[in-house]
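It is worth pausing here to work through a concrete case rather than discussing structure prediction in the abstract. The textbook approach is simple: state the sequence, then state the predicted structure, then interpret. We follow exactly that order.
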Amino acid sequence: MKNILGLDLGSSSIGWSVIRENSEEQELVAMGSRVVSLTAAELSSFTQGNGVSINSQRTQKRTQRKGYDRYQLRRTLLRNKLDTLGMLPDDSLSHLPKLQLWGLRAKAVTQRIELNELGRVLLHLNQKRGYKSIKSDFSGDKKITDYVKIVKTRYDELKEKRLTIGELFFRRLTENAFFRCKEQVYPRQAYVEEFDCIMNCQRKFYPDILTDETIRCIRDEIIYYQRPLKSCKYLVSRCEFEKRFYLNAAGKKTEAGPKVAPRTSPLFQVCRLWESINNIVVKDRRNEIVFISAEQRAALFDFLNTHEKLKGSDLLKLLGLSKTYGYRLGEQFKTGIQGNKTRVEIERALGNYPDKKRLLQFNLQEESSSMVNTETGEIIPMISLSFEQEPLYRLWHVLYSIDDREQLQSVLRQKFGIDDDEVLERLSAIDLVKAGFGNKSSKAIRRILPFLQLGMNYAEACEAAGYTHSNNYTKAENEAHALLDRLPAIKKNELRQPVVEKILNQMVNVVNALMEKYGRFDEIRVELARELKQSKEERSNTYKSINKNQRENEQIAKRIVEYGVPTRSRIQKYKMWEESKHCCIYCGQPVDVGDFLRGFDVEVEHIIPKSLYFDDSFANKVCSCRSCNKEKNNRTAYDYMKSKGEKALSDYVERVNTMYTNNQISKTKLQNLLTPVDKISTDFIDRQLRERQYIARKAKEIMTSV
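Step two, the predicted structure:
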């Protein structure tokens, strides 16, 4: 007797059932469900695909607290320094009216003021240090970019007037007592320049107190001190293909191996391009796949490597296919395939720089590795480490590694001989960090890439390189690996997604409790609810689509009320009737909507019969007259029309392609309408279970241990 556990993972609950079966019978032992304790806000945010998590909200508030704490620390250090120098202001100066305070700050630039008055000015300068620009400000976020432009424009106007911030604000307040200084943000450079102007003037009157060392200490170590960012390299994941485990001196299991490569790395970009190219599928009007040769794939790579995006029109042109024939492309061409973003951004920044061609060189050489294919006995090739010495990689590495703009420009001058100030400014504005990290290390990419270049898809290339892409155990490995008595809980922030952590931890609790009661399970079958199979973008699109469909259904219900109660079935029928332009999908004869809704001589027809394909969704249903439905019998729509002759099939293909082009039917329905019986998928579970999603992989990884 096999002991089997079935789990249904949803975002708000987990269903379970315990089944015992042998070759002759099955017995349902017990079943139940467990509610996942998500707040309404968490569940709504996750289902709608919102990007802001509870963690990010906490981080934002914590950042505000840190900023205020550091301001208080600077103020304490400054007051202590002023007290030592005899410059600490008294209570009367500490409570100066706004106009007088700004007047004192404007006066300090050109005239002598008292030491305690200077101390008050420095305390005022310490309150606002200005906006400090970083590379991520130029990452393409329109809101941030527009904000930075306004700040820079304001600074340019200030320099044209040859005024300091204090002088300008004093003039504005004199003209208008209600002028709001708070809303006028300037870059930090403007505040530093004002500090230098004040000190250059006042040091003439107090040379013994305002020495070079004192001024440097107040400016660089107190008021305008910028704490360097902490390194977060320890957060970068190790490569799944190359990581290994060992026991450290304390006997604790520890990971070792190379870290995953940044997404903007030129090597990662090349690997990603080949993965995308090998996934391209082009179908003709009869749903037949168009063959793409090795030369065409190479042409596609050259285009993607030098362009920001590959659109559908570009693809057809490169493949020599006519736009008017109606070729259909994959989902990736709705927005286009992203090109080599790193190379394109650097090339754009270099502009017309004379040495641009050399700086953009990135040639990859193959070499023999120490790995041997156990089946063929051939030595597995890999990309040589010489790619690290290529000009584009070296340039990328400098742009990626150095965050300080002045230091970065200095290194670009020394190491690459770039002396054009405009080019340097554009290069230093590129943000190559924000994109984050990929899922493979450079070492793994070097082994996989040669096989991708041969035209293999990602899974095949991984297998050829000696990697287990799906992390599946073979039967022998499954029987040999040691099983745990209990599932360990997921540590807090281990997955960096609070909702997924809660769901999987509840799953762990359910499985542990059931194992205690019913013993170890021989098999665990997991099914995911739709929202867990989807990515964030897909959940967001689904949420919007559901709302749109709901509004459409309400409108249709009002139209069909004269034909009876507007049920879900009748609303669907009305949509099918409109899809086919009020005609039978097969013979093209007009259909009366009243007859269809009441079921008189017009029926709902399954494009691919349910006996062949267990699909009762709207995408597998069309409007058909009863005679056509009867004649079609147990054939697919494509095979039925093919049996009517070449002319009927050609007209049918033309008709359904036009319906798709005019957005009358979905892509799934189009594929069903053009699917012959020999192309029907035979494994329903494999079609539905989307293991490429993170939660599915993690759930499987957890369950494998027991």
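Step three, interpretation. The chain has four domains: 2-53+471-534, 69-223, 266-464, 558-687. The CA atoms of residues 484 and 706 lie 5 Å apart.
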